Amino acid sequence: MSISVIIKRILCLFFCLYVAKSNASVLKLATEKAINVEEQDNLVHYVTAKSGLNYRKEAKGKILGKFLLNTEVKIVERTGVFEEIKDQGHHLQGEWVGVTSKVSIEKVYVFSAFLSVEKYETPFNIYDVQTYREKKKDEYFIILSDGYNWEEIEDMNLNEKVSNKHRELLLYNIGIKETDKVFIYSYILNKIMIFKVNELSLIAKEDPYAGYDYIAFDLKNKIQKGDIDEYTSSYVYIGKDNPFKKGEMKPIIWKKIENKMFPSVQIKGNDFNQPYVFKESDTLEYYSFINKNYKYYLKIKNKKHMYSQAFHLVVKLKGQVVFNEFYHSSEGATPAPLAFKTKKNKQHYEQWTGKIFKNKPPVILGFMYYSFSCLGIDFLDESEKSMRVKCDARH
């Protein structure tokens, strides 16, 4: 046998082994992929289309009905029919799959881009009422464009009054339905006003400070002077049901106490607030306030000088700390005026506390003014994250 023949046979042997190994790898990969798809299909899926998802007799076939948002379905067939569609300005890719559900026990077909293994949670968004001056009169509006892609808004070249076509697209992307209601709660006046979304004009206004367009519901001729407090935020929720609880908010009026009554609770220090933390040489004053079972304690430096003021606030419920925060002046932020117990007690109250939402813990509000950001709502429960009020502060 010649050397060339032997070399060819050796090369052939290596090639065959390589092909066999490659095929095994491909088979393993395909098997793993099939297993992953099978595992995925065994999970409960939820409809994520806010307006509902059409189900059909076959892939891309005749519409038989519609699954509502968050309807549970189980994938029972992969058709291999893939498609890319455009929905409300967004490109979505997916596969037509066969599913069963409690709504339709028989197998029907839907587009998988509108399915998820996680249930869609409706965002709990809080807005506030803002004002603009027009013909020597204050007009009111609710900015909705916080978090919206501002480049998309600019590309629309909107008129001040938004057209029906753009209104439908904007409200859909924000997550607002025409059937929703707008609930405005002035907790200082303890007053709730309710409007229907489909009765409010959607406007595009140019911010005179930043030069960008914001999208807002116009409350012109809907709210009059005196309907809401002029100096304190009135909170807004847009949805089906009223989330606000009336009559539970109280102004915080501080009463002086001895320093030994202040609880031994350490300030939550970080690199940013470290320079402002109290020193042994500082002159400090101590105050307290009680609302129901909650006890509030305040340690303050430079009480009379707002721009150099710093204070440590601790709130306890039945001996347990439920709130611990340190406030101080900084770039674009200053402490709001505090109210103290006096004989006349004629003050505008900035700080309020109590239950403002039906299904959330009590809140505490109004300790800081911010120039370049939206206000926040803090809860008297360390397990509940602070909520940012949406105001579109793109400075």
What does this structure look like?
With 395 residues, this protein is mainly β. The chain folds into three domains: 45-116, SH3 type barrels, CATH 2.30.30; 127-239, no CATH class; 250-388, no CATH class. The chain is 14% helix and 37% strand. It contains three helices and 26 strands. The chain has helices at 3-42, 150-155, 164-174; strands at 45-47, 53-56, 63-67, 72-87, 90-101, 108-111, 115-116, 127-134, 137-143, 181-186, 191-196, 201-206, 213-218, 235-239, 250-251, 255-256, 284-291, 294-301, 310-317, 320-328, 333-335, 352-354, 363-365, 368-370, 376-379, 387-388. The strands form six sheets. The protein has a seven-stranded antiparallel sheet with strand order 11-10-14-8-9-13-12. A five-stranded antiparallel sheet has the order 6-5-4-1-7, with no helix packed on it. Strands 15-22-23-25-26 form a five-stranded antiparallel sheet, with no helix packed on it. Strand 10 (181-186) and strand 11 (191-196) form a beta hairpin. It is elongated, with a radius of gyration of 30 Å. Mean pLDDT is 83; it is low at 17-37.
Features:
395 residues; mainly beta; SH3 type barrels; 3 domains; five-stranded antiparallel beta sheet; 3 helices; 14% helix
Mean pLDDT: 83
* Percentage of residues in strands: 35-45%
Give the distance, in angstroms, between the N- and C-terminal Cα atoms: 84 Å
What's the number of structural domains?
3
> What ranges have pLDDT less than 50 throughout 5 or more consecutive residues?
17-37
Determine the number of helices (DSSP H or I, runs of at least 4 residues): 3
